[in-house]
Amino acid sequence: MAGSSTSRMPLAAALEVLVPLREDRIVITTMGAAREWPKLSQHPLDLHYIPSAMGEAPALGLGLALAQPKREVLVLNGDGCMLMNLGCLVTIVASGAENLTLVVFDNGIYEVTGGQRTAAAVSPAQVDFAGFARASGFASVRSFASLAAWQSGAAEMLALPGPRFAVLSVEPVDDYQLTSPGPMSERLARFQQALAAA
User: What would the mean pLDDT of 162-184 be, rounded to a whole number?
Assistant: First the structure.
């Protein structure tokens, strides 16, 4: 559930918390996170997934988690993307994958397409993404409404039984630009090499 704008954390600051915690995890980013994470991390196991198939990053992360069961996978997803593929929550749990963490950054907008408000942001019911994850059967679910709470709770959340789901209330951004990280075929080839070498 989105909090008031005064309690939301900046996206970049929220991502900074994860940098020292990522270790050798595969990190899949999409949309807003794919713009900010490369400024903080240039790890060979980072994959910025920003095609027009919005909402598919959790499914990609699940595939990697199943293919690499001894490695942790961290998916950094937006609330707009999450709305477009809520069914993946049930699929993740049904798969039995325990090495997957899905973090949803809830800012109430489709920021990459121009800042339109999501249906969840205008709903009288005030959509609760953590509630969706609990109802789907995620082993561990946490909500973070402030940067201080996230800073103090992120490491513990990543150590909980998986699959894990966290929703962070983040501030909307003013800059909707999303620069391409380069041709997907080239990035996938580098990513596959990193997976094989690890």
Answer: 78
